[in-house]
């Protein structure tokens, strides 16, 4: 077969979750909670089903949910998005990102990603016929290097994808970095896809700097988010895109012919649940406590901790370990799963290019997900302490 995606196999998340299951390992690999969501959210979805809301919703989403998203964006970032024309409910962030790219990229257009980055970006750009332009984040700090981004911008740059809080490095862009980005893009036609799925997981009193806070950036941005992350329901696959009306109209043309619309009772349940902001306002404290607990345990292991400013990820460097000397990060994650009983994700998997991946795999950095019950984290820590 003449494959459209010849380089693509099973994702690292499927691979590591399957390996964790096969070996009965504690799965701190693929990013998902091992605890359930708020029963009130389940009840709200049940109620919508019982009330007979079981047919197609409007193509761009249930109006009450679009209104709830607009209210949340206004309250958290002070930016008005029109629920009728500027917010679209999607089948998770994954569908949103693909459709955003399909909507804006013409064959041959360049799309800049900042690596390491989420694994769907590069194949999605390929499917849209775009040319992938890979710009490394700073290799020590994983922060954006604006000189390199500036050097990568050309008149053919159609879009730049950013992601804060960042998967896998758990960095959070500062206000100054967002302003730098705005300065840099001034005068360029480039659009922005801003992947903000971890928007409500920012720690130590920092604020999430959504592009929505920066009118110049917001004007050229499709903001992507995911209720799966915010409300502990990754399996529901519901998210949203917020973008100015003209961009949203283009986005909806593609959305309309990919899924047309998204699960009605789940949308209605979410809209009712969002009437109370506490569940997402309480999320930073909820995850910060888990992060601190996990980091305190890791500090007693022979692993070097990297910062975790946001998201539910914690990266560590294992170069001090005897067992890790000869192993690159992918091999080490396999070994850790099979022999120690803890699954993690190699950070090199967030590089699209094979050579780059090979180089990054020698940085010996792996990613743990701490969206787990304390008992799960403690089981993993007990095993990691034996390293
Ligand atoms: N972007 C990033 C950075 C992610 O970590 C994820 C979650 N795996 C997604 C997008 C996809 O989100 P969803 O599960 O809503 O499709
Ligand atoms: N976003 C999740 C992660 O980074 C994985 C989602 C998936 O399995 N595709 O772990």
UniProtKB/TrEMBL annotation:
Record carries keyword Zinc: no
InterPro entries: Aminotransferase_I/II_large, Kynurenine-oxoglutarate_AT, PyrdxlP-dep_Trfase, PyrdxlP-dep_Trfase_major, PyrdxlP-dep_Trfase_small
Cofactors that this protein relies on: pyridoxal 5'-phosphate
CDD domains named in the record: AAT_like
Segments forming domain Aminotransferase class I/classII large: 26-382
Family label: Belongs to the class-I pyridoxal-phosphate-dependent aminotransferase family.
Protein name, UniProt field: Methionine aminotransferase
Lineage: Bacteria, Pseudomonadati, Pseudomonadota, Betaproteobacteria, Burkholderiales
